[in-house]
Design goal:
CATH superfamily: Bira Bifunctional Protein, Domain 2
Helix content: 25-40%
Radius of gyration: 17 Å
Order of helices and strands: EHEEHEEEHEEEEHHEHHH
CATH class: Alpha Beta
Distance between the termini: 38 Å
Largest sheet: 8 strands, mixed
CATH topology: BirA Bifunctional Protein, domain 2
Number of domains: 1
CATH architecture: 2-Layer Sandwich
Shape: globular
Strand order of the largest sheet: 7-8-9-10-6-2-1-11
Number of strands: 11
Structural class: alpha/beta
Length: 256
C-alpha cells in the first residue's frame, strides 16, 4: 500500500526535514510513502554535491532562498512546480536499483499526460548534464514533452527530473514537476513548464493529476494507494522537527 499526503507550501528547511523524516518512517514501516508539496517562497534547492560558491555566482538566482537537498542532481528553482518525495524501502524490488524507481515514477506520469493528449516521453537521446540548473540538463529517463501542436524533437523541454538519496534501509527520491516559468528568478534560470507548453492545462486540478499518477505508480509498486488525512508534516511533526535544525544550519548549506 502506498500512503500519500498533500502537504501544501512550506519553506526549504521544513520541506527537506520532512522528506528525510519520510524516509525514516518508510524504513521503519516497510511500506512506500509519498508526499506532494509546494514552496512558500522562490527557493533554489542545491543537489547534495553541488558547490555553494557556484550557486552564489549565478546572478539570476540571487534573489531566491537557498537550501541543500540530501539527494543529488542539479539545482532546482522551486515555487512554480509541484514537488514530490517518494520513500521506498530497500527491500522492495524497485528500491534495489536506482534507475528502476526513477523510470517507474517518470513512465507512469508520462502515461497520465499522454492521456491528456500531451506528447510526453522519457528522454533517451545523448545526455546533456553539465549545467548547474536541473532543468537545463537532460539525462536518460528525464520526462520531456513537446509543445502543443509540435512534433517531438530531441530539444523538447524537460518538465520533470528526479534525484535520490539511498539511506540504510530506504530510498528517498525527490522530483519536481515544472508547471510554469518561475517569475521569481532571472531569465537565465526560468524554464518553460507544462502550462507554458500546453495552455489548456492551466485549469487542470493538480490533485486530480496526482491521483491519476499515483494510481499507476502504486500498481507499478505492486499495490494500491490512499490519501492520508491532513499533512505529513503534522502527522509526523516530531519526526520532522528533529531534523529541521540540521537543514537550517549554515554548515549544511556550505558543506561544499
Amino acid at each position: 500500500m502506498l500512503s500519500a499526503w498533500w502537504d501544501g507550501d512550506a519553506d526549504g528547511v521544513v520541506n527537506m526535514a520532512a522528506d528525510e523524516a519520510l524516509g525514516a518512517v518508510a524504513e521503519r514501516g516497510g511500506e512506500p510513502l509519498i508526499r506532494f508539496y509546494g514552496w512558500s517562497e522562490p527557493t533554489v534547492s542545491l543537489g547534495a554535491f553541488q558547490r555553494l560558491a557556484d550557486a552564489r555566482a549565478i546572478p539570476d538566482i540571487a534573489a531566491a532562498s537557498l537550501v541543500r537537498r540530501p539527494s543529488g542532481g542539479g539545482a532546482i528553482v522551486h515555487g512554480s512546480d509541484l514537488t514530490y518525495a517518494l520513500a521506498v524501502p530497500k527491500t522492495h524490488p524497485l528500491g534495489q536499483t536506482a534507475q528502476l524507481l526513477y523510470t517507474a515514477a517518470h513512465e507512469t506520469l508520462a502515461s497520465v499526460l499522454q492521456g491528456h493528449g500531451i506528447a510526453a516521453r522519457l528522454f533517451a537521446d545523448p545526455p546533456h548534464d553539465a549545467d548547474f540548473l536541473c532543468f537545463s540538463r537532460r539525462a536518460g529517463g528525464d520526462l520531456v514533452v513537446a509543445a502543443a501542436g509540435r512534433q517531438p524533437t530531441a530539444a523538447d523541454p524537460k518538465v520533470m527530473g528526479s534525484a535520490q538519496r539511498r539511506l540504510a534501509g530506504a530510498v528517498v527520491q525527490h522530483g519536481s514537476l515544472l508547471l510554469r516559468a518561475n517569475a521569481g528568478v532571472g531569465p537565465a534560470a526560468r524554464h518553460a513548464g507544462l502550462e507554458d507548453l500546453h495552455a489548456d492545462l492551466r485549469s487542470l486540478d493538480l490533485r486530480q493529476l496526482a491521483t491519476a499518477w499515483l494510481d499507476r505508480l502504486a500498481r507499478r509498486l505492486g499495490g494500491d494507494f490512499h490519501w492520508e488525512d491532513g499533512r505529513f508534516t503534522t502527522a509526523c511533526s516530531a519526526e520532522a522537527a528533529a531534523r529541521t535544525q540540521a537543514y537550517a544550519d549554515p554548515r549544511w548549506l556550505s558543506r561544499r
